Amino acid sequence: MEKQPKLTAKDQWGVFKRLMRYAIPHKWSITIALFFLLLTVAGSIIGPLIIQTFIDDYLTPLQFPKSEVTTLVLVYIGLQLFIVAVSYFQLLRFQDIALKVIQQMRIDVFTKVQGLGMRYFDQTPAGSIVSRVTNDTESIKEMFVSVVVTFLQAIFVLIGVYIALFSLDVKLTFASMTLMPLFLLIITIYRRYSADFYQDIRERLSQLNAKIAESLSGMGMVQAFRQEQRLSKEFDDINEGHYRAGMRNIKFDSVLLGPFIDLLYAFTIVFVLGYFGFMSLDSAVDVGIIYAFTTLIGRLFQPVQQVMQRLSIFQQALVSASRVFKLMDEPDMEPLQHDAEQKKVQDGKIEFKNVTFAYDGKNDVLKNISFTANAGETIALVGHTGSGKSSIINLLMRFYEYEKGEILIDGVSLKELRKAELRNKIGLVLQDPFLFYGDIESNIRLHNEGMTSEEVRAAAEFVHANEFIEKLPSKYSQKVTERGSTFSSGQRQLVAFARTIATNPKILVLDEATANIDTETEVAIQTSLEKMRKGRTTIAIAHRLSTIQDAELILVLHKGEIVERGTHQQLLNQKGLYFMMYQLQNGIVDDAI
Question: Any idea where the ABC transporter domain is (predicted)?
Answer without folding.
Answer: 350-584
